[in-house]
Amino acid sequence: MGVPGGIVAVLIGLTGIIANSINFNWIGLITSIALFLLGGPFVRVTMMIHSANDRLDELERKMGEMNK
């Protein structure tokens, strides 16, 4: 899913919150709120994993230069 998928989940959740609030659809509203609340942390965790991988790649590159 990645970062774009998390952002799409947040936007769909936000759209669902608005639409279900207008129509007084409580079950759909609960589902949309859950989707909205889960999408944000998913984006954050994915970004943290990507930045950690970038840091590891940089450390591996430096270690390779030191061993030459």
Descriptive overview:
The chain has 68 residues and is mostly helical. The protein has one domain. The chain contains two helices and no strands. The chain has helices at 2-23, 26-66. Helix 1 runs antiparallel to helix 2. The longest helix has 41 residues, at 26-66. The chain is rod-shaped. The model has no long low-confidence stretch (mean pLDDT 87).
Task: Looking at this protein, list some descriptive labels.
68 residues, mainly alpha
Describe the structure concisely.
The N and C termini lie far apart (39 Å). Helices cover 93% and strands 0% of the residues.
Give me the number of helical elements.
2
Helix amount, in percent? Answer: over 70%
Mean pLDDT: 87
Count up the domains.
Answer: 1
SSE map:
Layout: H1 2-23, H2 26-66
Helix pairs in contact: 1-2
